[in-house]
């Protein structure tokens, strides 16, 4: 691994002090990582992968290989022992994640059929269609959180710059901010930017800008409770660590899960951590839709009606309290399927 770190740093034209500053550690430690006299921690690996633009899995495998070699060396029975460990790990890995239900697998297949069909008709897409659907997403996502603006009022605020009599400044800002956050995740998609802590904080900063400026783009420093839920989010001093683990989970699983499942999981995991004072739901849904857009799907727009909102909250509650993700995964998959079908119905020639 030492050669991998050094060679990649040189390719990126970075000095050891640059990497040290990004990691928040002493420069001498970087030199020791590169000459093999010290091993980075598992937490360092994730940040090194970001800084040096190396796949996290590649670094993790190299790190584990060095760790195993340092522990057991070249004993004559090492190879046989490793083979037995491999067999046992494969056996237990099959129990780590419950298989997807047949219903969920069926919906995922239907989603991919619609996506493949949509790809054939992308040339008929237009800015006007995209603009209208994104406005609906802003309207519905804010409505879930209690915003009382109508779709038309949202349009007048966002696209005409008008002020709606009788509506609060916060509701106006929520509409404007969310629309700007959509533009930001589309920019991240276009640039193929990696999903990391910085981007999540930037999304959240846009959501709360001008509403809670002191909390925008910052993790909460107080304990919170979720109104109407029995789930208790982690204490504030645990938030940064839980977020770090979230990104490690993402890097480990991003190539192993269906994109719709990956997007739904990241949504649920982020909103369960509840890292912010406010704006957790909107930020989590934007993260979910960033992942969907990156993989060529369309925005999954969860409706803000009472019935839809309660189904959404109940599905999240089942994840957080009962550790049952089936209902939530089904809800997101069904939403994506319906949004794909609608998109097709709009742009597909008669």
TrEMBL record:
<dbReference type="InterPro" id="IPR003812">
    <property type="entry name" value="Fido"/>
</dbReference>
<protein>
    <submittedName>
        <fullName>Fic family protein</fullName>
    </submittedName>
</protein>
<dbReference type="Pfam" id="PF01381">
    <property type="entry name" value="HTH_3"/>
</dbReference>
<dbReference type="InterPro" id="IPR040198">
    <property type="entry name" value="Fido_containing"/>
</dbReference>
<dbReference type="Pfam" id="PF02661">
    <property type="entry name" value="Fic"/>
</dbReference>
<dbReference type="InterPro" id="IPR001387">
    <property type="entry name" value="Cro/C1-type_HTH"/>
</dbReference>
<dbReference type="InterPro" id="IPR010982">
    <property type="entry name" value="Lambda_DNA-bd_dom_sf"/>
</dbReference>
<dbReference type="InterPro" id="IPR036597">
    <property type="entry name" value="Fido-like_dom_sf"/>
</dbReference>
<feature type="domain" description="HTH cro/C1-type">
    <location>
        <begin position="5"/>
        <end position="59"/>
    </location>
</feature>
<feature type="domain" description="Fido">
    <location>
        <begin position="195"/>
        <end position="334"/>
    </location>
</feature>
């Amino acid at each position: 691994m030492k050669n991998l770190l050094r060679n990649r740093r040189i390719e990126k034209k970075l000095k050891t002090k640059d990497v040290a500053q990004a990691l928040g550690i002493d420069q001498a430690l970087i030199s020791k990582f590169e000459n093999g006299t010290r091993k980075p921690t598992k937490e360092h690996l994730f940040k090194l992968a970001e800084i040096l633009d190396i796949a996290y899995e590649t670094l993790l495998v190299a790190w584990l290989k060095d760790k195993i070699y340092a522990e057991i060396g070249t004993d004559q029975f090492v190879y046989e022992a490793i083979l037995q460990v491999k067999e046992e790990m494969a056996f237990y890995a099959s129990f780590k994640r419950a298989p997807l239900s047949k219903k969920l697998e069926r919906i995922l297949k239907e989603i991919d059929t619609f996506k493949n069909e949509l790809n054939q008709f992308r040339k008929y897409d237009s800015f006007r269609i995209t603009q209208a659907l994104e406005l609906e997403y802003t309207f519905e996502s804010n409505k879930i959180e209690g915003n009382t603006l109508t779709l038309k009022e949202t349009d007048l605020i966002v696209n005409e710059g008008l002020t709606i009599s009788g509506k609060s400044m916060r509701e106006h800002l929520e509409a404007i901010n969310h629309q700007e956050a959509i533009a930001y995740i589309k920019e991240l998609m276009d640039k193929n930017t990696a999903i990391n802590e910085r981007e999540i904080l930037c999304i959240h900063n846009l959501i709360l800008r001008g509403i809670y400026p002191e909390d925008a783009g910052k993790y909460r420093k107080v304990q919170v409770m979720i109104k109407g839920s029995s789930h208790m989010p982690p204490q504030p001093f645990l938030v940064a660590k839980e977020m770090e683990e979230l990104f490690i989970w993402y890097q480990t699983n991003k190539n192993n899960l269906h994109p719709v499942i990956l997007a739904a999981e990241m949504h649920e995991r982020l909103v369960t951590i509840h890292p912010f004072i406010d704006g957790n739901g909107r930020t989590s849904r934007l993260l979910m839709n960033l992942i969907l857009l990156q993989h060529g799907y369309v925005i999954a727009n969860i409706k803000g009606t009472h019935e839809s909102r309660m189904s959404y909250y109940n599905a999240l509650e089942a994840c957080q309290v009962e550790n049952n993700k089936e209902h939530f995964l089904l809800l997101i998959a069904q939403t994506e399927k319906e949004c794909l079908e609608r998109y097709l119905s709009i742009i597909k020639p008669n």
